[in-house]
Design goal:
Elements (H helix, E strand, L loop, with lengths): L4 H21 L6 H13 L2 E2 L9 E5 L2 E11 L21 E7 L5 E8 H9 L4 H6 L4 H11 L1 E4 L5
Parallel strand pairs: 3-4
Antiparallel strand pairs: 1-2, 2-3, 4-5, 5-6
């Protein structure tokens, strides 16, 4: 999905408002997920689905085959502590992979990681953490390790 001039301007305004809001109130505005979806769709040429589509946020066609992609975003402020978590992933819904879009304090994309459904499911069902098992939430570090081992770094990449 390519953003036109008006869409780029609107996204820039939203990012600016979110930065100003965080600076003023020391709280997030809550647009990280929306920004992440738009950034991923734009950078990776995905087709976004309507909001609240059960199970996935975008479709990608690879060699004629549609892949259903769930997109998660995380804004990582400078000096943020380890242990940040990826938003809830419902493995009962149908999808092929999850993208994690990491944004900086200016809501600019720093990297995008992809993990396949089977590996995300395996990690979420592993014995241990209540957050992981009951809420479907992985740490950012765990998601990145799954991506590098069984998925891939989608962006930046040599062809980006």
């Amino acid at each position: 999905m390519a953003l036109d001039k008006e869409e780029k301007a609107l996204l820039a305004e939203a990012k600016d408002l979110a930065k100003r809001y965080r600076k003023r109130y020391n709280r997030p505005l809550g647009i990280t997920g929306e920004v992440a979806e738009l950034e991923a769709a734009h950078l990776l040429h995905l087709n976004l689905m309507p909001a609240r589509q059960p199970g996935y946020d975008a479709i990608e066609t690879v060699e004629g085959v549609e892949r259903h992609i769930q997109i998660k975003g995380r804004c990582r402020l400078e000096g943020c502590k380890r242990g940040q978590r990826v938003g809830s992933i419902d493995i009962k819904k149908e999808f092929d992979a999850v993208l994690l879009v990491l944004l900086d304090e200016n809501y600019e994309t720093q990297s995008i990681y992809e993990a396949p459904y089977d590996e995300v499911k395996k990690a979420l069902l592993a014995d241990g953490s209540k957050a992981r098992n009951e809420r479907g939430s992985l740490s950012v570090e765990k998601f990145i390790s799954i991506s590098k081992r069984n998925g891939k770094v989608r962006w930046p990449c040599a062809t980006a």
